Each structure stands twice: as structure tokens, then as C-alpha cells.
Amino acid sequence: KMYKFVIAFALVGTTVAELSCEDCSMIGNSATEAFTSEAGLAAQIDLLMEPVCSVVPADLECEKHFPQFWTTLAFWLFSPEGWFGPVNFCSDLCVRRSVLGSPSCGDCSARLEASIAKMADEEMQVAVVSKLLENAFCDQWGPENEEACQAGLEIVLPEAMTIIAGSGDQWIPGFCRNPIHCE
User: Model confidence over 63-99: pLDDT tens digits?
Assistant: First the structure.
């Protein structure tokens, strides 16, 4: 829904010819589960907190608020309708149907690598922050914290997306083998 225009832009040029809609959807759903699991969230917080908080103004008390703030952001960004949600992650593939065997490991890796790399795109970051603000993301923190939330979003989300994009893809082959069971 709210992500379609943002994520459709992210997937331009990322089609992998041999990946079916069903396989892509399985990869997207598995990535969504991994990124919103307790272990996935803890790993993201470990990866992001120090570098993100180093650029956040001291008055926002990043170290104190980052774990809860990022967890809330991550559940939005990586929701079933979010970054890896099949409606976005696979929108280009699911317009055509194909019946193939298990996805190849190369196709799985290529799809994930292209999607993660797109997180570093400044236009994409601006679009994601804009969507969060348009959808009243900061309302959940109460009117007294709305200004701090908006300031935090404009700093934290682009910085975090850039870090995730640059964090390496060493996890992708293992992820594609299990739980995806690529060939």
C-alpha cells in the first residue's frame, strides 16, 4: 500500500530472469521474518547504534532511545508489506507467473543484494522518511515527542539504511541456503 511507489522504484532493474514470483515471495517473506525476529533486531541494533548515534545531536539522547526507536522503525520498514514484503520485493516478478524448481542460489543472492544496495540511495532514503512522516509515524510517541521523533527520523533512518547497505552481504549466501533451500 504505502510502500508501493517507494519499493517499486527500488526494484527497477533488479529483475532476475529465472526467479519465479513464488520463489521471490518465499525469499521476501523469509527476509521479513529474519529482519523482525528478536535475533535480527538485536543484530541490527548492534550494527547501527554506535555509528548512528555518533551523528545524532546529544540533546536527542540517542544511546538511551535508539533500541526502542530502531525496533519500532524496523517493524515498519521490514513489515510484511515493507521492504522485503512480496508486494514490493517481488512486484516486478509477480506480474508474470512461472513454474520453476527451487530458486537458484545466484538468483536469491542477486535479488537480496540489489534490494539491500538500494538502501544507500539518497532519493530512496528521502522517500522512505517522507512516507513515515506522511503516515504519522511520530504520532505514536505522543505530541510532546513529535519534534524529536521527526528530527530523529531524518537523521537515523538515512544513516541506518546506508550502514545496512554497506554492511556487507556475507549473510546472504547462508540465508539463501537456509531457510530458502536454493539450488
Answer: 999 999 999 999 999 999 999 999 899 988 886 444 4
CA distances from 122 to 55, 84, 136, 152, 160 (A): 17, 19, 21, 17, 12
pLDDT in tens, 16-44: 447 899 999 999 999 999 999 999 999 99
